[in-house]
Amino acid sequence: MPSLPVHPVEAALDVLGVSPATLRARERIKHGLTNESWLIRTARDALVVRISAADEQALQIDRRSEASILAAVSAAGIGPEVVLCDPDRRLLVTRYIPGETWRSGQVREPENLRRLAALVHALHGLAVPAGARRLDLAASVQAYWRTLDARGERGDDTAALRRRAQEVLAELARGAVACLCHNDLNPLNILDDGRLWLIDWEYAGVGEPLFDLASICAEHRLGPREREALRMAYAQGQVDPQRLELACWLFEYVRDLWMAVRATPA
Q1: What separation in angstroms does the CA of 29 have from each of 39, 50, 206, 244?
Q2: Which overall architecture, per CATH, does domain 8-95 show?
Q3: pLDDT tens for the chain, residues 1 to 266
Q4: What one-character DSSP code corresponds to residue 21?
Q5: Domain boundaries for CATH 3.90.1200.10 within the chain
Q6: Which segments of the chain belong to CATH 3.30.200.20?
């Protein structure tokens, strides 16, 4: 008789050398599109166990890069403490932070917008860790195009949209700067326990800081006044507003491509 597959929580406990007998609670964490996660409590610890369930190649996820970035942001107090990171097993265990993820619209509170802008500015000032991937937005877009074309799925991605994307990519490439970025700052990836933490670093890498600001604008549906407040809070107005608008358009386009790739069968 074939053996039953090992549950990710049991696998994590085994790697950590923790007896299952010490497990006091196991709770599935429901949010997340590419992973399965559980909150587990033992006699001594509260941990989050995550297992990747994604087509990582098609979705352009680099777990080894993620591991190096997780170590850096954990040391900087921007991301949670890493207990175990095993890319070969697609397994990640972090220390549980007893806070709340933000609700949609919460960033619109002026103080919250300032807090998030300050945290992202601190992230962008970190030294880039060895092993962090460099994000080439043009290459990423082209890879999504190839995947969709190979699967015979274009959906709403018209030739006109592709031409517009190429124009925006070329414009943003002029004068671009690079730093460590998160790239997916939606409300569920912002944890608040009195201070802010960023979680879910699988799309992080070395790239254009404008893309992080665009992520905030798009994922939190910020209007013109709120975008201006973010721009001022982040770097006292040093971000070019026209470049930010282009980055917002590109972020939403890349997000639509990602959703299309995720939704179509390989």
Answers
A1: 7, 9, 29, 33
A2: 2-Layer Sandwich (3.30)
A3: 334 345 777 777 777 777 777 777 788 886 666 778 888 888 788 889 888 766 667 667 788 899 999 999 999 999 999 988 888 888 889 999 999 999 988 999 999 999 999 999 999 999 999 999 998 999 999 999 999 999 888 778 889 999 999 999 999 999 888 999 999 999 999 999 999 999 999 889 999 999 999 999 999 999 999 999 999 999 877 899 999 999 999 999 999 999 898 888 76
A4: G
A5: 100-263
A6: 8-95
